[in-house]
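Troubleshooting log. The previous structure file for this entry was overwritten by mistake, so regenerating from the original sequence record. Sequence copied from the archived sheet and checked twice against the printout by T.R.
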Amino acid sequence: MKIVTDDGADLLPEEIAEMEITVVPFYIHFPDGELVSTEISRDEFYTRLRKAAPHVPTTASPSPGRFINTYRRLAADGDEVISLHITSKMSSTYDDARLAAEYAEANISLIDTLSFSGGQRFQVLAAALAARAGWAKEAIVGLVERIRNVTELVFTLGTLEYLERGGRIGRVQALLGSVLKIKPVIVVDKEDSRFNPLGRRRSFPQALRLIVDHLIKTYGPTTPLWLSVLHGQFTEQAQNLAEMLSEHLQVARLDVLRISPALGVHAGPEAIGVAALPMSLLEGLLPSPAAGEV
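Regenerated output below.
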């Protein structure tokens, strides 16, 4: 069983290598040219993003042709392929992969994760772990669906400017308001992957506390959780959030991750949030904690 995804999943390089996950990258269009998202480091990208303002770069999903080549290569020995992708509500990636699957002449099962970043990552890692354990395709798909239904993805931003320019503002338009320098807190809807406003605060510490309170309300203080702190180029606040989570929740596993360029285009450098998953969903699949920040 082969696992495919895109780099909207914010996987660690060591996870990709260890789990033998194939990641099909996005393209980033800066005003001065195009590059593949994997060709640039996180810090280089966010530094360049700041300098490009007010000209925000755009993204393009992998072409169907690229998916066809990937599927044919992976299925050459008769292997089944499970391909999990960033929510179809935000990107054409899933549709491009579906089109490719029709022409690849291979056994491809497609999953719309209805998520992105840490939420998508949990689904991809679960599929890879289950595949390595020898699970059947139907069982893997069922596990992924259960994980999707209980994963929380909540974040705050330094500004809504990047979401607004990228056309991703959606239901959080109400958070714009007239108050300068507010920090919107946004939760991703599990049903349709849209952005729902959770609230707004005047400072990052207050916004981070709202994130923690939301997770306490959702899971309670004693449920063992896998928590992934995600940020663009905001190391200090990411560490603050990690410490708050460790203080108020039952942390079984904690990662601090960088948001990929494919998503950073829309979130900006001062994006910070957390993906949360009850560890019970991965019982028997997860060996030992893996390392944190890239």
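The longest helix spans residues 117-132. Archived copy saved in two places this time.
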